[in-house]
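dumping this here before i forget
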Amino acid sequence: MRGESRIPEGVWQKCRGCGELIFIKELIRNLRVCPRCGFHFPMGAEEYVDLLTEGRSLSTIEDVHRPPYLIAALTQVKRFKVVIAALDPNAEKLPEHLVYRSIALAFESAAENGLPLITITPGGLFMKGEGRDKETIKSIVQMEKSALKFEKTGLMHISILTRPHPTYDFATLIPLGDLV
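structure:
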């Protein structure tokens, strides 16, 4: 339309807190916090991993790395080698058993490589509870066994909760790190 200015997509973000338009580059520089009202925009798994690893390369754990929803990899935070498992808030788009299996393999990889584990998980995923298929239940059991194996190593587990929820399925397992 004539006289109407068009804003290119991906340049501006409207704040859900104050309604102001924020230049995307400014929002990223401010770690996705609105500079006007302090509203925290959700971050995806890739953004969290990139922030922690300062853009270092990832050596992905085969068969479980599903960007952008799920990242499972060996990497470095500062000068320390770690295993990192990050779930995106949209990970519910993946099959439930795949998510549990991926977390299990991250625990196993950390234990086998003698490395600390960092898990980044949002609250509110997989709150179904009932009607799980055999494959999902098998993956949950595998995750519990892998977590116990990792715990016996005495290695550090840092659990980052991005949007904690009191009825989150992982509440009994993943957030029980050495540092939450």
